[in-house]
Amino acid sequence: MSFDLSLPLSSAEFKALRTSMGVTAAWVAGRLGVATNSVLRWERDRTPDKQAARFLLELKMRFDGEVEWYDERAGEPDPFGRRESRFILIPRHNSDDPERMPIGWHLMVAQRVRERHPDVRVMFDDGAEA
Questions:
Q1: 43-57 average pLDDT score
Q2: Single pTM value for the model
Q3: Per-position DSSP letters for 65-113, written without gaps between them
């Protein structure tokens, strides 16, 4: 899916896009260097500024790319030609590293892949089933 990065996002589009990727308003605010209340205002009644809209649209392209990466691997047979269940390992908790994506992101990516490949299993990285 491609987006026209020059088009503004409405408040509802901004919120729908953010929540569809499993990222919080606080996480977006932190990445943009603004107050969480700014993000919440954009989603309530103000048009998001161009920088914020561009950030979210670029993040959506990254999200779609990650889903596609898993999607391609889930449909491939293993080295022996079998189509066994595949696993997606996701973190159980948010990382302290600000460069890492939040747990909500990983959950949403995994769910999108499972919608296309029901045999794919989602597991927490500590071995406990999601």
A1: 93
A2: 0.85
A3: HHHHHHHHHHTS--TTS-----EEEE-SS--S-TTSPPHHHHHHHHHHH
